Amino acid sequence: MTTETMSLPTMVPPAREATSAAPETTRAAARGETDPEPQPAVRVRDLSVTYGTTLGIKGVDLDLPERSVTALIGPSGCGKSTFLRALNRMNELFPGVATSGEVLVRWDGRFQDIYAPGVDLVELRKRVGMVFQRPNPFPKSIVENVIYGPRRHGVTDRALLAEAAEEALRQAALWDEVKDKLNAPAAALSGGQQQRLCIARALAVRPDVVLMDEPTASLDPISTGKIEDLLGKLSKDYTIVIVTHSLQQAARVSEKTAFFLNGELVEAAPTLQMMTNPRDRRTENYVTGRFG
Ligand SMILES: Nc1ncnc2c1ncn2[C@@H]1O[C@H](COP(=O)(O)OP(=O)(O)OP(=O)(O)O)[C@@H](O)[C@H]1O
Ligand SMILES: [Mg+2]
User: Fold this and answer.
1) Ligand 1 centre and the CA of 257: distance in Å?
2) Which residues on adjacent β-strands are paired with residue 103?
3) Nearest CA to ligand 1 atom 5
4) Cα(242)–Cα(131) distance, rounded to whole angstroms?
5) Rg, Å, the chain Cα set
6) Distance 109 CA to ligand 1 centre (A)
7) Nearest CA to ligand 1 atom 31
8) Where are the beta strands (DSSP E) in the chain?
9) What tens-digit pLDDT sequence spans the chain (292 residues)?
């Protein structure tokens, strides 16, 4: 299914400069596989999602370490997008969806069940923002896209909005390219620039967690490299979950990788371990290209 048709306005905040790590240097390797996993920002327990009679995911347990990148991998239809959308309750936009289990997001210093009655979905999607596979800027100017979220959350002061826009565009490594044409239509940007604009839009509301569903799938290698560089910087401030079909991308950008198959989480481990020494034969088959 295409997620880009849903355009819930949620995106987010700040980081530092994109550095080009040598491609062979995985983030996982750089951090050291023996380092303890940071405490989780999100804790998922026994999570199942069905669409009518169709299984989305079943019984998933997974912790998403804070200020870190977690990659979700697995063949088409295995439930990666379903899992991702469960983290900010976006599956509920589809008719006939049933969700069970727990998704606990650390919020005001404690874990809160986002499926508990009374959860404010606008606030949830501010904290847990999303970037889609295809850039989906609103048909507005560049700056209007970025300040859409802050405005919606009540910021009216023009100076504050301008500040928020600059900060988010800098974080998304787009500021230098657009600072002289902030009022130009977003549609006039290149695809790679539009995707960074969507990341800026997500960051402008200062989320804690940013969900990215194949964010570079529609981009050329140079734009892909820019987004990957960006992820390294953003993970200093944000908890990031990225779905990717590229094992190389997972290795380059993530510390932790989770492998899904037929709606189940087969294995989750430090990325280097997953790529070189997975515990489960099915993971091994997938990462060595022998799957199927
Ligand atoms: N909106 C929906 N309505 C009905 N079924 C859905 C919907 N979204 C996903 N599914 C089903 O749930 C299962 C998991 O799909 P999902 O989109 O989560 O997989 P995926 O791993 O993201 O696949 P891909 O790599 O192709 O994006 C599939 O059987 C799919 O057909
Ligand atoms: Mg998907």
Assistant:
1) 19
2) 44
3) 51
4) 9
5) 18
6) 33
7) 77
8) 40-51, 54-65, 69-73, 97-107, 110-113, 128-131, 209-213, 239-243, 256-261, 264-270
9) 433 333 333 333 333 333 333 333 455 555 555 567 779 999 999 999 999 999 999 999 999 999 999 999 999 999 999 999 999 999 999 999 999 999 999 988 899 999 999 999 999 999 999 999 999 999 999 999 999 999 998 999 999 999 999 999 999 999 999 999 999 999 999 999 999 999 999 999 999 999 999 999 988 899 899 999 999 999 999 999 999 999 999 999 999 999 999 999 999 999 999 999 999 999 999 999 887 5
Residue of the CA atom closest to atom 10 of ligand 1: 56
At 61, which amino acid appears?
D
**Number of the ligand closest to the Cα of 245:** 1
| Ligand with smallest separation from the Cα of 6 | 1
What is the number of the ligand closest to the CA of 80? 1
CA torsion 28-113-85-42 (nearest 10°) is -10
Helix, strand or coil, per DSSP, at residue 187: helix
- The residues lining ligand 1, judged by C-beta closer than 6 Å to any ligand atom, are 1, 51, 54, 56, 74, 76-82, 94
Helix or strand run (H / E) with residue 289? none
Could you tell me the distance, in angstroms and rounded to a whole number, from the CA of residue 51 to the centre of ligand 1? 9
Distance 77 CA to ligand 2 centre (A): 7
The closest residue, in CA terms, to atom 3 on ligand 1 is 51
Q: Using CA atoms, how far apart are residues 122 and 103, in angstroms rounded to an integer?
A: 17
